[in-house]
Amino acid sequence: MDHSQKLENISSTIKAEFGTLNLSQLNWKANPNAWSIGQCIDHIIVSNEQYFPAFEKVVTGKYKMTFWEKNNPLTSYTGKQMIKTLGPVVVKKFQSPKLFLPSQSSIKQSIIDNFIEHQNKLIKYFNSMSENKFEKTIITSPVAGLLTLKLSDVMAIITVHEERHLAQMKRVKSQLTE
After folding, report:
1. 160-178: per-residue pLDDT in tens?
2. What residues of the chain score a pLDDT lower than 70?
3. Which of 26, 126, 150, 171 is the most exposed place for a label (fewest CB within 10 A)?
């Protein structure tokens, strides 16, 4: 299954699993330090959107790789490690970079529709970037200027990261008390 299909499945699951939750259920937290379902969804949107400027340049033909992106010897290793560690099987909990943190205020009911709209845009990018002409494209991580990643790895990272948080949201939902 390709990344676009996985993203479509995640969208369907989020709509089916969480689309009928009320505002307090979307914002319920197991403890003050945990994220609510709404915050998990917001985090996915915020994280993914950090890549959108680079994606836009790639699909419009305006992207030019820097010297570092072309020559960083750790690019392949970094991507493989991130795919493994950010995936749905939680080996270790991570502190999300500040850039990727969700809103700390109450998440609005519209978060589900916002997510579906966001996913549709992301899927469009993924479909455009799946062409062979982009297979050697490398971009810089929005988190750290020294981190470079193959575009194909970024797509895998985003997909497994969404799967990770979908599993987290399901755990939160199972703890909800009506």
Report:
1. 999 999 999 999 999 986 5
2. 1, 91-92, 94-95, 177-178
3. 171
